[in-house]
Q: What sequence folds into this?
């Protein structure tokens, strides 16, 4: 299941969907908005995305990871819009029979989203706004 | 042809999208970038002076040699910073 949404992600509600029969391990990655960076305190961040392309790219990695690591279930939710420090930005939940696959899939998905999903962050500080720079890694092919 | 801009590109241009009709000799992304760069000073700032611009054709990542068609939706943006 994938979702791109404005509102906060209810983590426990999502995890409940992963706790099913035959599942032996559930792994989560939850990205949180930081309160400051090197250049100062952050009032909020604004995330923009490319509707249509975003969903396609997230769906692509959900299908790939579910097959490759034989996941029982995979949930990926990414927020957009205004997000204040401390709030969640992204949720990835992977459920599998054994922990190894759930860990591997979860890590792969977040690395994939970082470089392949069309999201852009802007940090609003007291008197300025800063467009977050990418770490310049190459696209991950699947 | 529909051109869409994101992030700081949109802010510099002060538009999020525009419709353009490139001449027939504009056949790929490289040609299009050079042509768009002549549209205004703001376009020039983005297309001819910024090196770090990526693009997608109809939601698929493209490169400078990718072919373009009149009914394409072409998006320009900086590298992604989600997650």
A:
């Amino acid at each position: 299941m994938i979702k791109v949404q404005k509102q906060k992600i209810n983590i426990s509600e999502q995890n409940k969907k992963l706790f099913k029969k035959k599942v032996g391990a559930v792994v989560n990655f939850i990205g949180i908005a930081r309160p400051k960076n090197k250049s100062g305190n952050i009032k909020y961040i604004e995330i923009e995305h490319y509707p249509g392309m975003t969903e396609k790219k997230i769906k692509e990695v959900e299908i790939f990871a579910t097959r490759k690591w034989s996941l029982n279930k995979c949930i990926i939710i990414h927020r957009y819009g205004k997000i204040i420090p401390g709030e969640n930005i992204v949720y990835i939940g992977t459920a599998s029979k054994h922990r190894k696959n759930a860990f591997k899939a979860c890590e792969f998905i977040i690395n994939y989203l970082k470089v392949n999903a069309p999201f852009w962050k802007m940090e609003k500080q007291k008197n300025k706004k800063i467009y977050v720079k990418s770490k310049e890694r190459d696209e991950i092919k699947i | 042809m529909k051109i869409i801009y994101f992030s700081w590109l949109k802010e510099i241009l002060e538009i999020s999208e525009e419709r353009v009709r490139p001449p027939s000799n504009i056949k790929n992304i490289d040609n299009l970038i050079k042509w768009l760069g002549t549209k205004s000073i703001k376009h020039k700032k983005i297309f001819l002076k910024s090196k770090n611009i990526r693009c997608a054709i109809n939601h698929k990542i493209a490169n400078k040699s990718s072919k373009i068609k009149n009914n394409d939706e072409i998006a320009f943006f900086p590298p992604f910073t989600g997650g």
The CA atoms of residues 62 and 74 of chain A lie 7 Å apart. Helices of chain A lie at 11-18, 53-68, 99-116.
